[in-house]
Amino acid sequence: MEKLRSFVQWMMIDPRHPEIAQAQYNELKTQIPLLYALLMVNAIAVSYTHYDAAPFYMTVGILGPMLVFTTVRLMSWIKSRKIVLGPEAAIRKMRQTVILGSLVAVVYISWSLSLDQYGGPSERGHVALFIAITVIGCIFCLMHLPQAALMVMFIVTVPYLAHYMRQGEDVYVAIAMNIFLVCLVVLQVLFNSYRGFCKLIDSQSALAAKQKETERLNAENERLAQTDALTDLPNRRYFFSRLDDLIEKIGTDNTPFAVGVVDLDRFKPINDTYGHQLGDQLLTEVGKRLGALARPDLEICRLGGDEFGFLFRGDAKDAERTGQNLCERITEPYRIGELQLAVGASCGIALYPEAGRTSHVLFDRSDYALYNSKTTSRGRTTVYSSEHEARIKSDRAIEAALQNADFAREFQVHFQPMVWLPERKIIGFEALARWNSPVLQQVGPNNFIPIAEKTGLIHRLTLLLFDKALAQITSLPGDLCLSFNLSAVDITSLETIEGLLEVIRQRNADPRLITFEVTETSVISSYDAAETCLQMLKNAGVKLALDDFGTGFSSLGYLHRLPIDCVKIDQSFVADIESPVACGVVTSIVNLCRSMQILCVIEGVEAADQLSTLEALECRLVQGYYFAPALPYDEIKQAADTGGKVAGLELSSLSASEIHRSSMG
Ligand code: C2E
Ligand code: CA
Ligand code: CA
């Protein structure tokens, strides 16, 4: 019963094997036209030999419509060669073919057997031969549709055999038996080859499925390789490959585009204070917010650390607005566990092709614009412009001149007096670097120090300048203090710190008279290394000052955490001292320093009224053009030797503890 059901299912073309059905149908498209052609040729031949013997309606009369029908079917199969059918349609078509094939077989066998009653032995022999070769030919043509082959074989051979057995002529019975057996064998061969065909198709489709799976896995691997594991945003690799794509495509698609870099502000202190795990959580949250802003024309990636990149298709104005929007979205507060946190973000943008035509240059330019945002307008977006280009050119010129400079000859330190207000006396000097380059003439420290840092020349330069400064200050009368500026690179280099201490030892100088000035931004950028180095200096007995105080972000935190002896309030507050805000800030810093027993220096005093305001606030140590700019050593030496005064002020040898005592008083 079960066997019968599966046989019927098979005869109806089993829909569970759609790939096989489709392959079968494709083969049939070429073979069925041949089958019809064979049928027509053979039928015409029989009709021709019976033309005289049989009535007209039996030869031409019946054959005519049969030929017309066969021709129509033949043409329709030829036409269908170009049409690709889906599995379902192919199955339907094959079911039709099985039914139609059976009907055609019925018609042809009825017609040819009824011709057998006409003509002599040769005509009758021709009929027997016609049926035999036609059925074998048709079975062959139907080798890819064995269901139809089976039907045709039985519809033809059973009546054929029955017809001749009824007549009882031995020769014809033998022929019919023979043909029947041959057909059975042919059918068996055909089934065998059909099974092979099915296996082949099965293995082909298994292979195709495997290939599809491999392709899917490859695509998944590719996606993972281009995804940042922490934030799930596309990563740096994706960013640069997309950037290359955009540049390549711009030849055909003329939409302008922008490369943007967004960097978090104050992320490092958060990471340092709350730990890396929380830092990661914060980055994940930032990633989520940015990911939600991505659009087809705005792709946002994480480039690494707290740096994100974006590619935006649009003009400069829209790009700037987009960058600013990203920064503002990042700046909104975060809630992580019990903590409420806030970070800032700055952005730099470079436009194609104004800023550059290669991914490397475009990225560098956007990074440069970001650096500008970071240093001059935090939280803002800077679009790379021609001024930046000019700046880069001038930086390159400085770099080239610096590489070839004769340090000992070209670099000097000038000394700006630090004035003790209660006695209007100079208690020491801040050493400020000066470069007189034979190529570029006077270059300011703000311009060459960052380049010396970048090129790694700062180590040699710092040691040379410090040695000069120490030699010169100790040659002045009395025990004067020396303040010397250290850069971010200096305070994270053990080699430089050891070098500085070695200079102090060799010059036999009193370390208590020496103060090293550092800015908080330089400390933040590499806090752990900086802390170790600063502690080494402290242990050697020198003092530390936090320079440009009030311009950073977390000043108060660092006052507690670093071994600081002195704070230098940034010039910008003095320039603005008439405003209640600046005045309030200066007052609170002065009070804070007093309560923390830290010395406080006010920088940038230029005018008498500024000085009187500061004196009213009980500021005691000041620097500024009001008293003197940074002066060359020779000038100071000569003035000190001749009148004992520099810039009209006496040099004082107040001891450090004296200053400290009266400053705190
Ligand atoms: P800084 O340490 O804040 O130095 C104070 C700057 O303000 C000096 O500029 C000084 O000439 C200037 N200045 C002093 N009084 C006044 C005033 O009343 N009004 C105004 N407007 N400016 C005043 P300079 O010499 O151009 O130095 C700039 C910066 O370069 C310094 O800022 C310091 O950060 C850095 N620098 C200078 N020399 C060295 C050095 O030897 N090593 C390192 N690493 N950095 C140095
Ligand atoms: Ca300074
Ligand atoms: Ca300063």
Summarize the structure in words.
The chain has 665 residues and is α/β, with parallel strands linked by helices. Among the domains are: 207 residues, no CATH class; 149 residues, Alpha-Beta Plaits. The chain is built from 25 helices and 19 strands. The chain has an 8-stranded mixed β-barrel, surrounded by 4 helices. It has a 5-stranded mixed sheet with strand order 2-3-1-6-7, sandwiched between helices. Strands 4-5 form a two-stranded antiparallel ribbon. The longest helix has 56 residues. The chain is rod-shaped and about 155 Å long. It starts with a helix and ends with a helix. 37% of the residues are buried. The chain binds ligand C2E and calcium ion (2 copies). One calcium ion (CA) binds next to strand 13.
SS-based class: alpha/beta
Taking all Cα atoms into account, the compactness measure Rg is 49 Å
Question: Tally the helices: what do you get?
Answer: 25
Main beta-sheet strand count, sense and barrel state: 8 strands, mixed, barrel
> Quick one: overall form?
rod-shaped
Strand arrangement, major sheet: 8-9-11-12-13-14-15-16
> Gap between N and C termini, in Å?
113 Å
**Extended strand count:** 19
| Oligomeric state, counting identical vs distinct chains | single chain
Low-pLDDT parts are none
Topology:
Layout: H1 2-11, H2 18-49, H3 56-79, H4 87-115, H5 121-141, H6 146-167, H7 170-225, H8 236-249, E1 257-265, H9 267-274, H10 276-293, E2 298-304, E3 307-313, H11 316-331, E4 334-336, E5 339-341, E6 344-352, H12 359-376, E7 381-383, H13 386-403, H14 407-410, E8 411-420, E9 425-437, E10 441-443, H15 445-455, H16 458-474, E11 481-485, H17 494-506, E12 514-519, H18 520-524, H19 527-539, E13 543-549, H20 555-561, E14 566-569, H21 571-575, H22 580-596, E15 599-602, H23 608-616, E16 621-622, E17 631-632, H24 633-642, E18 645-646, E19 649-651, H25 656-664
Parallel strand pairs: 6-7, 9-11, 9-19, 11-12, 12-13, 13-14, 14-15, 15-16
Antiparallel strand pairs: 1-3, 1-6, 2-3, 4-5, 8-9, 8-16, 8-17, 9-10, 18-19
Helix pairs in contact: 2-3, 2-4, 2-5, 3-4, 4-5, 4-6, 5-6, 5-7, 6-7, 9-10, 13-15, 16-17
The protein binds ligand C2E and calcium ion (2 copies).
One calcium ion binds at residues 547-548, 568, 603.
